[in-house]
Predict the 3D structure of the following.
Amino acid sequence: MNTKKFSDSARNVIEIEANAILNLLPQLDSKFERACELFLNCQGHIVVIGIGKSGHIGNKIAATLASTGSPAFFIHAAEANHGDLGMINSKDVVLAISHSGETDELISILPTLKFLNIPFILMTGNPNSTLAQQATVTLHIPIEQEACSLGLAPTSSSTATLVMGDAIAIALLNRRGFSSNDFAKVHPRGHLGRRLLLKVADIMHTGPALPNVRSGTPLIQTLFEISQKRLGMTIITDENQRLLGIFTDGDLRRAIDQGLNLQTTLVDHVMTAHCKTINKDKLATEALHLMETSKITTLIIADKEKKPLGVVHIHDILSRKIT
């Protein structure tokens, strides 16, 4: 049994794979530029094709491209030979991955790609292979050795291929001027997506759920409205439904401490006028910032005429996990 320490083997793997990545730098030449131009000018999709470990890497590359502004999808090379090739059209560009450059499942689809005049970009460790000779552009992935001690399991080659895919994706992202807002649009359920897409209008309480009493309402009736709507507050409006102020459960406690008669005291006398409001199209993150800096837990959404449209509670925002 080999008694070599696990960490020694692991360190060797990392060093070999790191070297494989660094060996990609000389490959960022005119061929790389041409491939990126073809991807950038693609009117359809970048179709990534591979099989085996190359297929797994290709799937990840396609996902990275798609999420960074370059429409892309993955096709398994075997399935491409049994109908999935119909997913490709003349507006697409194919990015094939084959370390040997002799993958039969890829060689067999070349006639169809040529017939459709589809650019064929190849990532391979063998620039003299059958596929390389037929490719529109060949991106060489030079590998001195696999990190596997047997030299069999794709390790250095798969890592270097993935890194080259990342390099392409980010180069395209930078050229397109793809922004964090663009990124959020294709990641709506991700943290960044929620921060950059979630608007106040998406989470505000409106209609029957909006606590609202008319000017001149006694505190006892105001208390019923607060209790029923369960937001710890109510807005106060005039006869034209314009916002006059806000009355919270904190205001109610202070009124009770002052010994005010809940039956006869009108809400107008104890409400907070000139309360904070926000536009419905503002981001939830902006609403949260306003609430935190103002030390309030509810925020009224109003239009330009000061008519209330809804209300948002700080818990409504925090529950969306945008912080």
Summary: The longest strand covers residues 243-248. The chain is about 40% helix and 15% strand. The mean pLDDT is 93. Residues 156-176 form the longest helix (21 residues).
